[in-house]
């Protein structure tokens, strides 16, 4: 098999590594903004597919199929984001005679249309959050407040607005529609009741062509900002075995209902009383798949390859120990994204750690793409040890030149709320808002800046101008 | 020198490796030095400075120095992050209320609305939709107005 990875950053690196381990030939694609991307150096061949703007490159189906034709690729892995949940892409890949490493166009289309997904899940006996399929403020308001306005074509928290009172509704609908149109090219909206104090729990599933579906445990993903996850863990702390079993059964029903083939994730809202509702199904590999791999020993990307090639679902191994992931994103204290260039980068190492990264020392972090730089994962026999281990790892992590979420996430790990496993999806924004730097920390920042002005680095160059082997050699044999 | 840490002003004096900072009425003294290899240490904790950003011990914040003597009567609006201007919602001469959306910026798949800090008149617009902008760049000039006038 010759695999083209239609993505960039850490997930392209992850998939290319798995493909190399399987002995596949590999093709990377890159935009003009990603010429120095480390995924490019990990593939046997690479093709520039267009300019920095995603529409001209990573979202450009014609350019991707052209790159596959030029290189003789026989299969395409879409990663996550970009075209990974595009039924049109899945169909175009199949029509070009190539193997798409993902589900069928029909399964993608049903789950990508959030209102169609809600109807399909309801019919399959999977509980769904009360909602209304409309963007008329009058119809939405009938649901009662607070509520969420969401993009029908949405995902990843984009095109979503929390509305607490009817007065906020018109502006929220307009903003959500504009964001959905910009992000997905589809401005349709729907609304759901907000489940207060809810946790975000998701079930990993694998399905094969014969129709068999297995659940591979659940992940807790409640540490979020803007509806996007920053810390994930598995198993789910405090989840009774009976609730986990019920969620897994519902997830399997959801996947069976759309004849799901490949790796997917069924997301649920879990209320404090143990009730849960279907939120959405992600018809692709998840950012946080690695923690499931750490506790099961399965390689979910390799499972994607095998299921796409027609193999049967694997036996589900027993869960061993506990794993937590911290997403290292280029963001400041207010979660504002900060593109730029990284200086010196040093990853934490030692027992029980895994780092999946899309950057290295000196990497450019373009404004055109997501702010996720890397994922630091810790495994240990128990949750407390995993928590301590991840905190230790984040303390060792060095990423100069750009603000990252590492310091905030290290602080989250130390909180009583996280230690108790009692975090809901709106918790982090309140915690971060209350965690302003104290005056002494601000003074130290002022001191560092002023000292640097008076004592510039003696080389005359900042650390990010130092050549690195990645930048000068690429991958060496 | 006068330094702004985010929005917080500080007076800083550098005397060799001794750095004295007066912030919010308190005085702080730091020992700043460079390790071999150029790594900056503040009271022994590793720090980095890249352009207008500073990180200390894994935490980080934006810093910028105040332009001295520029006690301007109008406020210039500048982006907090490198971004693309997605929309400009106002025109020159518009009267805007506190909190009114002026501009929408986008970066890394995130939208950010820049709002009027106070009731103001839009005096000048220095950007347009599609422009790439960076912190420190003037996007538009606002002149505060007395809402009771």
Report on this structure.
The complex is a heterodimer of chains A (477) and B (149). Chain A contains 17 helices and 21 strands. Chain A has three domains: 2-101, Rossmann fold (3-Layer(aba) Sandwich), CATH 3.40.50; 130-193, ATP-grasp fold, A domain (Dna Ligase, domain 1, 2-Layer Sandwich); 199-433, ATP-grasp fold, B domain (D-amino Acid Aminotransferase, Chain A, domain 1). Chain A has helices at 9-21, 38-41, 61-71, 87-95, 105-112, 114-123, 137-141, 169-184, 241-257, 289-296, 300-308, 383-396, 406-413, 416-419, 427-433, 439-454, 469-472; strands at 2-5, 25-31, 45-50, 75-77, 99-100, 131-132, 147-151, 161-163, 189-193, 199-207, 213-225, 228-234, 262-270, 276-282, 322-329, 340-341, 345-346, 353-357, 364-365, 372-380, 398-399. Chain A is globular. Chain A has 477 residues and is of the alpha+beta class. Chain B has two domains: 2-65, no CATH class; 75-144, OB fold (Dihydrolipoamide Acetyltransferase, E2P), CATH 2.40.50. Helix content of chain B is 0%, strand content 56%. Chain B is built from no helices and 16 strands. Chain B has an eight-stranded antiparallel β-barrel with strand order 1-2-3-4-5-6-7-8. The radius of gyration of chain B is 19 Å and the shape is elongated. Mean pLDDT of chain B is 85; it is low at 67-73.
Describe this protein with a few key phrases.
heterodimer, A: 477 residues, alpha+beta, Rossmann fold, Dna Ligase, domain 1, D-amino Acid Aminotransferase, Chain A, domain 1, five-stranded parallel sheet, 17 helices, B: 149 residues, mainly beta, OB fold (Dihydrolipoamide Acetyltransferase, E2P), eight-stranded antiparallel β-barrel, four-stranded antiparallel sheet, 56% strand, elongated
SSE blueprint and pairings:
The complex is a heterodimer of chains A (477) and B (149).
Chain A: E1 2-5, H1 9-21, E2 25-31, H2 38-41, E3 45-50, H3 61-71, E4 75-77, H4 87-95, E5 99-100, H5 105-112, H6 114-123, E6 131-132, H7 137-141, E7 147-151, E8 161-163, H8 169-184, E9 189-193, E10 199-207, E11 213-225, E12 228-234, H9 241-257, E13 262-270, E14 276-282, H10 289-296, H11 300-308, E15 322-329, E16 340-341, E17 345-346, E18 353-357, E19 364-365, E20 372-380, H12 383-396, E21 398-399, H13 406-413, H14 416-419, H15 427-433, H16 439-454, H17 469-472
Parallel strand pairs in A: 1-2, 1-4, 2-3, 4-5
Antiparallel strand pairs in A: 6-9, 7-8, 7-9, 10-11, 10-13, 11-12, 12-15, 13-14, 15-20, 16-19, 17-21, 18-20
Helix pairs in contact in A: 4-5, 12-13
Chain B: E1 2-5, E2 8-15, E3 18-23, E4 26-34, E5 40-42, E6 45-50, E7 53-56, E8 59-65, E9 75-77, E10 83-88, E11 95-96, E12 101-107, E13 110-115, E14 120-125, E15 132-133, E16 140-144
Antiparallel strand pairs in B: 1-2, 1-8, 2-3, 3-4, 4-5, 5-6, 6-7, 7-8, 9-16, 10-12, 10-15, 11-14, 12-13, 14-16
């Amino acid at each position: 098999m010759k695999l083209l990875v239609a993505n960039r950053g850490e997930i392209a690196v992850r998939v290319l590594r798995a493909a190399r381990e399987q002995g596949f030939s590999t093709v990377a694609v890159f935009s003009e903004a990603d010429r120095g991307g480390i995924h490019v150096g990990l593939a046997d061949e690479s093709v520039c597919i267009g300019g920095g703007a995603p529409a001209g490159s990573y979202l450009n189906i014609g350019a991707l199929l052209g790159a596959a034709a030029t290189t003789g690729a026989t299969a395409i892995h879409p990663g996550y984001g970009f075209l990974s949940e595009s039924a049109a892409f899945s169909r175009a890949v199949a029509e070009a005679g190539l193997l798409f490493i993902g589900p069928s166009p029909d399964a993608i289309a049903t789950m990508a249309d959030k209102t169609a997904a809600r109807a399909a899940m309801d019919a399959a006996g999977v509980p769904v959050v009360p909602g209304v399929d409309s963007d008329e403020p009058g119809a939405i308001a009938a649901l009662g407040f607070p509520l969420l306005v969401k993009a029908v074509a949405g995902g990843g928290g984009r095109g979503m607005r929390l509305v607490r009172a009817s007065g906020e509704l018109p502006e929220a609908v307009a903003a959500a529609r504009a964001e959905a149109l910009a992000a997905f090219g589809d401005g349709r909206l729907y609304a759901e009741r907000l489940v207060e104090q809810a946790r975000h729990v998701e079930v990993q599933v694998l399905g094969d062509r014969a129709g068999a579906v297995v659940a591979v445990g659940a992940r807790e993903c409640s540490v979020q900002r803007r509806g996007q996850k920053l810390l994930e863990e598995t198993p789910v702390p405090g989840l009774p075995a009976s609730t986990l079993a019920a969620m897994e059964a519902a997830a399997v029903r959801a996947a069976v209902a759309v004849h799901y083939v490949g790796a997917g994730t069924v997301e649920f809202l879990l209320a404090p009383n143990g009730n849960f509702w279907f939120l959405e199904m992600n018809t692709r590999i998840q950012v946080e798949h690695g923690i499931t791999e750490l506790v099961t020993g399965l390689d979910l990307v390799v499972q994607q390859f095998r299921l796409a090639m027609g193999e049967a679902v694997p036996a589900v191994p027993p869960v061993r120990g506990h794993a937590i992931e911290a997403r290292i994103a280029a963001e400041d204290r207010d979660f504002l994204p900060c593109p730029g260039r990284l200086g010196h980068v040093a990853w934490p190492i030692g027992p029980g750690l895994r780092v999946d990264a899309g950057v290295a020392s000196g990497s450019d972090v373009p404004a055109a793409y997501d702010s996720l730089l890397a994922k630091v994962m810790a495994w240990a026999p128990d949750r407390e040890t995993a928590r301590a281990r991840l905190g230790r790892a984040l303390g060792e992590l060095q990423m100069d030149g750009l603000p990252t979420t590492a310091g905030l996430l290290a602080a989250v790990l130390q909180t009583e709320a996280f230690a108790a496993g009692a975090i809901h999806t709106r918790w982090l924004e309140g915690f971060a808002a209350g965690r302003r730097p104290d005056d002494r920390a601000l003074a130290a920042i002022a001191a560092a800046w002023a000292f640097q002005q008076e004592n510039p680095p003696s080389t005359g160059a900042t650390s990010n101008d130092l050549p690195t082997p990645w930048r000068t050699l690429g991958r060496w044999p | 020198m006068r330094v702004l840490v985010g929005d917080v002003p500080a007076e800083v004096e550098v005397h060799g490796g001794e750095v004295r900072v007066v912030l919010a009425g308190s005085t702080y003294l730091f020992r700043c030095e460079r390790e071999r290899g150029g790594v900056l240490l503040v009271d022994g904790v590793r720090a980095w400075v890249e352009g207008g950003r500073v990180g200390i011990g894994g935490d980080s914040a934006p810093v910028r120095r105040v332009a001295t003597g520029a006690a301007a009567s109008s406020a210039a609006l500048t982006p907090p992050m490198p971004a693309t201007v997605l929309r400009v919602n106002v025109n020159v001469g518009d009267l805007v209320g506190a909190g009114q959306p002026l501009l929408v910026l986008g970066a890394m798949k995130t939208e950010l609305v820049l709002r009027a800090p106070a009731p103001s008149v839009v005096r000048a617009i220095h950007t347009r939709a599609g422009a790439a902008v960076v912190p420190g760049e003037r996007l538009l000039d606002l002149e505060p107005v007395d809402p009771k006038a």
